[in-house]
């Protein structure tokens, strides 16, 4: 599948699709909230590494010049005052001329590099994601907790997973935590807040990466009047090779 | 010298001072230009990797909690409509309550890592800096050319210099160009636009890094009503160890 194929045909989660291409989280907010959102992202670069910001009203991004952000994401979430009000497959009727869209790096992007380095990917169509007890650094009217994604990694491969993902800071980089979930305030790994339950084998260690669903937790906490996001795991697949975001 | 020593006593360029600590470029703009500035930085992460953004009017940054941004920089530049109007050692009387300060990573930060890797640092108190013929990606009312810093590197060490700096993307990362200056529109290496002339030995290759003086070239090109910056090479020395910005 090419990125274009994913953008035009897929309706489910995008993990493992169009391998080798960068995937992105979406959060679109009215222009009067755009500075707070961009500042929030700058102040929280682990969960919110910004890959592109559109001009107000434009549904186009340099990350995939031919794509329309109103239709290219498999599933959207529409938010009003912190409440999820719709989850459409097409956001065209919800889009507004004053929306500024932020494309934020997604950890699906480094999964190809993890696999090439021999780190097995246990999860199914979607990763497990959890709201943590860590608060992000606020910006203007925006505040909220850090969300993380989980991958179960064989103990002997944790160092490889840290090193490989650490070289891709624009798609969340190295893990924020390895081991005990309770250190993040996660009480039951089997019940993620978003995505699929984890799949583990004997000797696996839970490894947590900062997650681009964090802005959705921020919407729930901060309750701005309006926003459109992707649905967790249902990413915008760009035309940018993942190598573009690999350093070192 | 500690970072505090540099901030309180130095009046010249800061290259090589307080080794092991992160140095930063400063650009402070009125709040109504802050979104354009932050967006410009996001769209041009090589020259403008943002380390912190202050709240409007605040002269304080998380990068050095005890420091006052109005006095901690060795020398400032005050800009009105794209013209340099003053170059004070203390910016207190020029500071305004509506200013938002951006601290942007500086390549002085990776010089310690270069030196540890065996790359000799030829330059004197300041590096040579040049305005190039490459245009940055515009944002709102802000546009202008890329500025680069130059280090002359022995040919056999260029790969090391690329690798070591490439692991520090928040302080400009890998070079933007190696070799022929004319590819960047630079006609005479001996006459930099800012800083000191280069010092070279036989067999050296010119290596160019994106530079945090770029926002000053943007001020000259875009002519906004007001801004305060550092003077090139006269950096804000933070309390943050350089290892904080090293990945991999």
UniProtKB/TrEMBL annotation, chains A, B:
EC class (word): lyase
rRNA processing is among the record's keywords: no
Sequence intervals crossing the membrane: none
Alphabetical list of InterPro entries matching this protein: D-Glu_cyclase, Putative_hydro-lyase, UPF0317
EC number per UniProt: 4.2.1.-
Pfam entry (one): D-Glu_cyclase
Protein keywords: Lyase
Domain of life: Bacteria
Keyword Lyase set for record: yes
HAMAP family tied to this protein: Hydro_lyase (MF_01830)
Family under the similarity heading: Belongs to the D-glutamate cyclase family.
Xref: NCBIfam families: PRK05463.1 (NF003969)
Annotated protein name in UniProt: Putative hydro-lyase ACFPCV_17740
Lineage: Bacteria, Bacillati, Actinomycetota, Actinomycetes, Pseudonocardiales
């Amino acid at each position: 599948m090419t990125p274009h194929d994913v953008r035009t045909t897929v309706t489910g989660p995008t993990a493992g699709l169009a391998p080798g291409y960068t995937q992105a989280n979406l959060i679109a907010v009215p222009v009067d909230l755009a500075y707070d959102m961009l500042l929030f992202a700058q102040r929280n670069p682990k969960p919110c590494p910004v890959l592109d910001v559109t001009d107000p009203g434009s549904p186009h991004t340099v990350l995939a010049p031919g794509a329309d952000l109103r239709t290219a994401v498999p599933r959207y979430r529409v938010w009003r005052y912190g409440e999820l009000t719709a989850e459409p497959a097409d956001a065209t009727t919800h889009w507004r001329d004053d929306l500024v869209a932020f494309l934020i790096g997604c950890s699906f992007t480094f999964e190809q590099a993890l696999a090439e380095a021999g780190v097995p990917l246990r999860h199914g169509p979607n990763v497990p994601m959890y709201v943590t007890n860590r608060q992000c650094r606020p910006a203007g009217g925006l505040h909220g907790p850090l969300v993380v994604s989980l991958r179960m990694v064989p103990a002997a491969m944790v160092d490889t997973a840290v090193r490989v993902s650490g070289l891709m800071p624009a798609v969340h980089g190295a893990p924020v935590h390895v081991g005990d979930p309770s250190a993040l305030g996660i009480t039951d790994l089997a019940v993620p807040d978003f995505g699929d339950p984890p799949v583990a084998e004997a000797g696996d260690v839970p490894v947590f990466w900062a997650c681009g669903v964090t802005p959705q937790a921020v919407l729930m906490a901060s309750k701005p009047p309006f926003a459109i996001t992707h649905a967790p795991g249902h990413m915008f697949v760009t035309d940018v090779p993942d190598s573009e975001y690999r350093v070192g």
